[in-house]
Amino acid sequence: MPRMTTEMEKLSVTVEGTVFMTDKDLLMNNSEYFRALFQSGMRESTQDEIQLQNLGSLGFLITLRVLAGERPLLSFEEILQAVECAAFLQVELLTKHLVSLIDSDNCIVMYQAAATYGLLDLFHAAAYYIRDIYKQLEEDIHCLPPDLIQYVDSLTQSSFVAVGAHTPTLEFLEDVSRTMCFLDEEKNEWLSLGCIPDEASTFLAGVTMLDNKVFIVGGARGANKKVVEKSFCYDPENHSWSEFDSPHQLRYEVTLVGHEGHLYAFGGEYERVPVASVEKYSLTSRMWTFGKELPQPVAGPPATKAMGRVFLCLWKPQDTTIVYEYDTSQDELIAVSSIRRMQSYGHCMVGHRDNLYIMRNGPSDDFLRCTIENFNITTQQWTTLSGQYVNSKGALFTAVIRGDTVFTLNRVMTLLYNVDDTHNWKPTKEKSGFNKGGSLHTFFLRIPTKTKLMARNLYKNPHQSFL
Q1: What is the average pLDDT score of the chain?
Q2: Strand 10-15 to 49-52 pairing
Q3: CB 14 within 8 A of CB 49
Q4: Of 169 and 130, which is predicted with more confidence?
Q5: Domain 1-101: which topology?
Q6: CATH domain 159-460 topology
Q7: CA 127, 131, 132 angle in degrees (round to 5)?
Q8: Over residues 230-248, mean pLDDT
């Protein structure tokens, strides 16, 4: 009589004298090394006990934890052994986890280890991270081998980019303010990357960056909030705009997140009615598919990425804010935590390391000040940042983070904060404001030198064409 169920096939793996009991299929499904070993037809492919030579037991333990769904923080020694295992065993999930852990404290260790073991995805990610905070690490960088320094120097640092809220316009009524601009941090000047397409809307649109391209989805036209049916992509490499398909559910005031080759459209409104649908767009297949709906219809839910994961906030009556993780592998929403706070008109969330920072205006009689709560993903603990933060004209709601520096923006100034070890935000620098009215979309983009030179030339000679 045939068996109706199958049990997991257990495997004993010995590393440095330590015996690990694990699931054979788990290793086969996640490790190119084990997949090749068990399908090789050699004697080892049929054994239920194997030994791994020249690997650290600590690194293999971390590998098993990550394959089991954990996302552990790692010390320098653990990073070195984990990188070795990820490279030798070819475990993509572990490599992704290591990339998600890159920060200003460990980026150089990650970079050197990835170079040593040939872990290319981690190597490139760490190099770009170092390039973005080069000045902060300048003394440590010079301890690297010359070829590693040369590679970092060859990369383009990300630039702080902003675009205002604009509705579509007729070509003969072109609005010269419909420009996307970047901040030249050395000269403290905003330079134009040219106008967004005439038919594009950044008013109540979803705007995000993915694979160093800008994506605009949805948006509204005019006071009646007629939904814009076209979506647009900007590629800084060739300084060009292109159209791509819009979600099946047309929407404005949509939240758009770019993550691992996909765009995620959360909620929004259509004909003034909030929607709960979630859709995913694949850059490879160029198709939109529906995911699991949100638990409630909502327009513009705050969302961010942290630790290689996607998080968003929903709120319910009695001023309850609920933090969810959107599991992109299963297209499911998982409730993570909640907090009771008075909800005013504003709500924003940004991620830094394993922390989520949630900003909100309030209390309701003081719209110019903002409170910030910190939720630590690892400890599952909430803390409130000391004091209140000035949120003049919504500056904090434009917050984006590069390294340990928060960039906020309004018409008056670009205010930079440093996130310290106690999670507080300390103002460090003021730079030029962005002289555009209305709400703003901000993000970081790697702009080629040739495009920056054209922007600089246009700044000096405003009557010339950018193209």
Answers
A1: 90
A2: parallel
A3: yes
A4: 130
A5: Potassium Channel Kv1.1; Chain A (3.30.710)
A6: Neuraminidase (2.120.10)
A7: 120
A8: 96
pLDDT over 90 at 371, yes or no: no
Q: How far, rounded to the nearest angstrom, does the alpha carbon of residue 224 sit from its chain's CA centroid? A: 32
pTM of the model: 0.92
Tokens of 363: 């209390």
List every span in the chain annotated with CATH 3.30.710.10.
1-101
Q: Supply the pLDDT for residue 4.
A: 38
Length of the chain: 467
pLDDT tens track for 271-309: 999 999 999 999 999 999 999 999 999 999 999 999 999
Please state, as a whole number, how many other Cβ atoms lie within 10 Å of the Cβ of residue 219: 30
Q: How far is CA 334 from CA 77, 288, 318, in A?
A: 32, 22, 21
Q: Where in the chain is the domain with CATH 2.120.10.80?
A: 159-460
Gap between the Cα atoms of 247 and 192, Å rounded: 29
Dihedral, CA of residue 197, residue 201, residue 206 and residue 208, to nearest 10: 30
What's the mean pLDDT in 166-184?
A: 75
